[in-house]
Write a structure and sequence with these properties.
Number of strands: 6
Oligomer: single chain
InterPro entries: IorB_Oxidoreductase, Pyrv/ketoisovalerate_OxRed_cat, Pyrv_flavodox_OxRed_cen
Protein name: Indolepyruvate oxidoreductase subunit beta
CATH topology: Pyruvate-ferredoxin Oxidoreductase, domain 3
Keywords: Oxidoreductase
Largest sheet: 6 strands, mixed
Radius of gyration: 16 Å
GO molecular function, one term: oxidoreductase activity, acting on the aldehyde or oxo group of donors
Mean pLDDT: 91
Low-confidence stretches: none
Pfam families: POR
Length: about 190
Amino acid sequence: MSKVKSILFVGVGGQGTILASKILSQGLLESGYDVKMSEVHGMAQRGGSVSTQVRFGEKVYSPLIEKGKADIIVSFEKSEVARWLEYLKDGGHAVVNDYEIHPVPVLIGKESYPEGVKEKVQGEVKNSIFVKAGDIAKELGNIKAQNVVLLGAVIKALELENMDWDGVIERLVPKKAVELNKKAFRVGMDQVK
């Protein structure tokens, strides 16, 4: 593969955005790709925006994704995708967690949660996949696994499912959460047709 692929992960602090990016990066490295990853924590501890950028291919010179160049945007919270759509290239994919986290201004009634995000994204991005990752993770036993549900969907969308993802999850996820995350990963892949 000589073409570089660019994946932008966006979410809210505490959703596991960075761990999902690390699992993806490690799996790609172990499969022989050149990988670069950049992370921005922002106000992560206060529920603020978090983003990571992963680029991989035969040779990657920079981890940074320019506007209009992301092959995939992975949004861990529904409204976050709207903030980052300008980074998606024409024909790119959006993998979105159909899950809402209301920021403090919304919770105290100073602002309203954005309406129509799903419809806007589906109207602008032909290749959009909405996954109820939060609900799926709750059903599996822990909402914290929503990040790995989304990662499974991304792996399937990228057609990279034939790598040793179970092994990577075993090495990067705390031992007590390994089996849950393996299940979450498989269910996430099943969300993409």
